[in-house]
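Deliverable D4.2, example record:
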Amino acid sequence: MPVSLTTDSTAAWFEPLPPIPGDRFRDVDVTDIDGNGLLDIFAPAHSFEARLYRNTGGLTFSANEIAAYGLGQDADFPRWETGVPPVLGAPGLYVYRKIEGAPRDEANTSLNLVWHSTGTTVARVHLTFYAATTIEYQQNAGLSLTTGVDGEGRKIWTVSGKIQAGGQAALRPTETGLPIDVTVRRSVAAAQIYVGPDLVRPDRRTFTLRAKDRHGLAFADFMGDRLQDAFWAVGGAGDTAQLYEGLIDDEVFVNEGDVEVLLGPSSGVRKTTCRGYDARVVDGNGDDRLDLFLGCFKQHPMLWVQDSAGHFTLDPLTGVAQTIYGTRWVDLDNDNAQELVGTAGTSVVIYERDANGSYQLSQSIPVSTGPGMSQSIQSADYDGDGYQDVFVPSKSGSVLLRNTNGVLARQALAPLALPATAIGAAWADVNSDGLLDLLAMPGGLYLQNPNGTFATTGVLAHLQPTYIASATFADLDNDGARDIVTNLETKIDYIARNVSPQGNWLQVNLAGPNGNANAIGAYVTATTGTKVQRHWIGESDTSLFSQGHYRLYFGLGAVSAIDKLTVRWPDGTVSTRTNVATDRMINISYP
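Output generated by the structure prediction step:
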């Protein structure tokens, strides 16, 4: 039998695990990158070192495998973006990054050069930066800075000159998301050049260092081979991203079994004017193939539509002419066509695709009159009527939008005993009683009562963000209870196992057709007697900008068997199972 939470200490319900080291994260999510049935943790980190911790079972995780999977900032120079200084050993030219300042200070990094030698040979270097750069300091070196224009008409900053034996220099660009071209003259052999903390040797004396301004990371099998591919939204270069086409790109990776391979221009995806921040994988045009959606800073979003050959072409999203933040694709009316939901200014907007392929603004709901509008949209059927509702956390006034037959309308928070403001939020049935609960940060966990109101528990109230926050509830040890991973400000310092008393439960993994193997757009309905519970692929993803959590969670309370479990696949096909036993995870494949 389920046991309801009461006001109690967090320790009685969540048992902390070791935190993720580091302090420059902007999001956190989970995915099953290796297909072993265990959810792995990943965290984008702008131009710094992202994290990918593979779940090895028993609530243990690997060391960071972001570089091992080919998803590091620069495949040619793994881990150079970490800012960890190298250990100077053999004579040579050491090239590395140094990171200083507050975690939110993206520009406070420098490129460091050390000519570790006791001889008389000088190291002659020539470096090209695509952002304003200064020579922060130099010792026993004669470097000079000039400005100019490259062959594409882009302004460049060039640092050139010589470094004497034992000399060093630090060069500071104002933008971390653009490449740096490095040439070392013949006085230094390529075998004497060491890049980053791992002392990677380039195969030639001319090479490029990359530290891209990455934001949202979406994992999905969009190539149809049952392996998780990846799409990374890349920003950078201020408001002038279009000037750097060919230098920075939104990134499409194909999983080749144990490594993600960057497709580059062959994917068709290219950087235009979009400073990408929100990465989503969705069937945007209803052709049963997965497309790539890109939320953009200060301009309308973009959709890259996939053809039968796996190539992507830009869909102009005709009709969507405004900047939208906190984007999420939600099937509001259960027709298997997902609507685009997001925040625009002080409103929540909903766009629907019409028969001609254009998008129509179907609703615009005023939600805020002050600063601090949310970049987070959380969708789930909290009231159990079979339609996805939407919660928008905001420090200027959170909003709950209740869905009635596909139409959203504001629901007052006070009568439900939900907090008036929040910075981050996530829906989850934390005790498997069949009622969705709400984590609102700061504030903690609000447990839903049978009458639809919520009770303040004091659980997780120690999560006190002031700027940005996201949380993911995922069953990390496959015991039926949803554990928690949080990203507060720039840290992922709270990961905890759910040890609270649980009701019966069922977890469902769907395997769709080759064009949509993750079954994005599908929903599953569990019926027992008169009780009906419905969950949609995508609702488990509660991160800010990322995607990858496709498992569905059913809390069932005292129910020990489900009379009927119905899957409505994205193409409208329906599958049904009867008399489904609980307290287990099941896999259902497309007919």
